Structure formats: C-alpha cells, structure tokens
C-alpha cells in the first residue's frame, strides 16, 4: 500500500505564495477529508499532491520518492484523481469512460486485454453501474455520472484515490449516494481516499482523518472529534458553532449560528436577544 506525505511543501500561483512549508501525512487505508473556507488552499494542496500542479518548493513523497520526479504512467498506477466537474466527449458510454482507467496499464497501442475487461467489469459492479454501462453519460443523473467517474478511477487499480469536492452540485440524496459508495469502497478494499469536502458534517461522518486548512496551513489535524471543535471552527471559518454528538454515529456535528466577528462585536442578529443584565448574546438554539 502506497504511502503519501508532503515535506516542506510550497505552492505558488505565479509570484503569489498560496501554501508555505506544509508538512502533512495521509493515513494509509483510511478516508481523509481536507476542509477549510473558500480560498484556503485545500484544492490547490490536493492537486499538487496528485501531481497536477508543480510545487514551488519542497516535495510530495509517494513511497518516499518525489512524486514530481516520477513518470506520469508510474504515478497513474498508484493514484487516481477525480477533479471537480469532470467532462467527457458527447456520446461517450459509461463502459467507454471506465475503460480509460486502464490506460496506465496498457503497453504500446494495444487494445483492452482480458484482464483489463475483468477490472472494468469489477469497477462497474463495485459502483452499481451494471444497468447503465451502455448508456451515454449525458443520459445519467448527477449521482449516476459521479459514480461512473469513480468507476473509471477504480479501474486504474490504484492504492490512492483523490476526489476534489465529489458532491458539488448534487442534491442531498445523490450526495449521500456518492459518500456511502466511497465509504463502502474504503471498507472493502482499504483503499486510501483523500477528498476535499465542503460540508463539515459530511467530512466528520465519512472521514477517519481530517485536515483543516487556513491560508495554506494545516491548523488542525486528527480524528473528527479533534478537528470539529468550536475553537477550530472559529479559527478556520470565522464562525461560532455549537458542537453536538450525532446520536447514531457518535461523530461530532457542527451547528453554526453566527459569524465570530458578530459575537465579538456584540451585535445582535434576528432570532437572538440581548441579555443586557449579563451583557452577552444569548442563543435560542
């Protein structure tokens, strides 16, 4: 199973430094969620760890070797990435899309071998896309399309799977469909999954390990109960929140109720009242 970590990683867009001296390790065989406010650098970090972006300094180490010094084909045998809003040529079938995942394992200009077809069928079965394999992608729902893309990534047979906000633009049911699929894949094959997650409660529910990013820095790292705290949410997102325990899963749930600056400035928002006797804001939640 491949190991992955960053060592003194610097990332820049032109002359603007986005990430500086980042040192994080991704637990093997676990689901890791990168969380943070918009513009915090979490997607940039994911893309650099997946070798899409070139670092300005430092390194991303895959099995102890710099990932940016390895060949594209060799890296593609060890990790797959599903970017935000992936696109495919019109009319491409689900089976054809998934078959692209076998490219790193093919030699020369040869077509699909029997082993390739077995892996493709396995990926279709694992993502429950059997009845859709001959359909064009544009004929599928958002959740079905996302499952097809995940199947393509699975067909690469990699130890590590990166996903950049895999539930973006999906409704609540399709979000759960995708996240539960990833949870099953991790449980069944111990595949290392690293994903940028917009919803904190989804991150806490489905990830074993969380990394909270602020201005390109990891300010909190650990299990959900170590990261989803009032103090971390105040620092990373600038919000005041109550943290309660999910009665079913036991993971922390975030109940945000106001911006941190509003609380510190003593502003009263609708739905709250000013307890002038104690000179503090009282929540009705």
Automatic annotation (TrEMBL):
Locate the coiled-coil region(s) and give their ranges: none
Q: Which Pfam families match?
A: ABC_tran
State where the protein is found: Cell membrane
**According to its record, how does it sit in the membrane?**
Peripheral membrane protein
* Source superkingdom: Bacteria
Indicate the segments forming the ABC transporter domain, all copies. 4-240
Q: Which UniProt keywords apply?
A: ATP-binding, Cell membrane, Ion transport, Iron, Iron transport, Membrane, Nucleotide-binding, Transport
Q: Which PROSITE patterns match?
A: ABC_TRANSPORTER_1, ABC_TRANSPORTER_2
GO molecular-function term, one example from the UniProt record: ATP binding
**Protein's name according to its UniProt entry:** Iron-dicitrate ABC transporter ATP-binding protein
Give the source species: Paenibacillus vini
Gene name, per UniProt, is fhuC
């Amino acid at each position: 199973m491949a190991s992955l970590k960053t060592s003194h990683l610097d990332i820049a867009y032109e002359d603007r430094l986005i990430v500086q001296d980042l040192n994080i390790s991704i637990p093997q065989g676990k689901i890791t969620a990168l969380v943070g406010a918009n513009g915090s650098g979490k997607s940039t970090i994911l893309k650099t760890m997946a070798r899409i972006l070139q670092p300005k300094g430092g390194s991303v180490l895959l099995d102890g070797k710099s990932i940016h010094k390895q060949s594209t084909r060799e890296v593609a045998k060890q990790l797959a990435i599903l970017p935000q809003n992936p696109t495919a040529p019109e009319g491409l079938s689900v089976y054809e899309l998934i078959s692209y995942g076998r490219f790193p394992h093919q030699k020369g200009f040869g077509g699909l071998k029997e082993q390739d077809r077995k892996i493709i069928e396995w990926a279709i079965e694992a993502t429950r896309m059997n009845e859709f394999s001959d359909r064009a992608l544009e004929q599928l729902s958002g959740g079905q399309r996302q499952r097809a893309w995940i199947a393509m990534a699975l067909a690469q047979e990699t130890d590590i799977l990166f996903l950049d906000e895999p539930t973006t633009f999906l409704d609540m049911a399709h979000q759960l469909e995708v996240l539960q699929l990833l949870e099953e894949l991790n449980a069944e094959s111990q595949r290392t999954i690293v994903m940028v997650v917009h919803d904190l409660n989804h991150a806490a529910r489905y990830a074993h390990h969380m990394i909270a990013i602020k201005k390109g820095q990891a300010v909190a790292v650990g299990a959900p109960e170590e990261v989803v705290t009032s103090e971390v949410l105040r620092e990373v997102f600038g919000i005041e929140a109550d943290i309660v325990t999910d009665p079913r899963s036991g993971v922390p749930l975030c109940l945000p109720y106001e911006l941190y600056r509003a609380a510190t400035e003593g502003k009263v928002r609708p739905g709250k009242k000013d307890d002038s006797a104690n000179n503090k804001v009282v929540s009705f939640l």
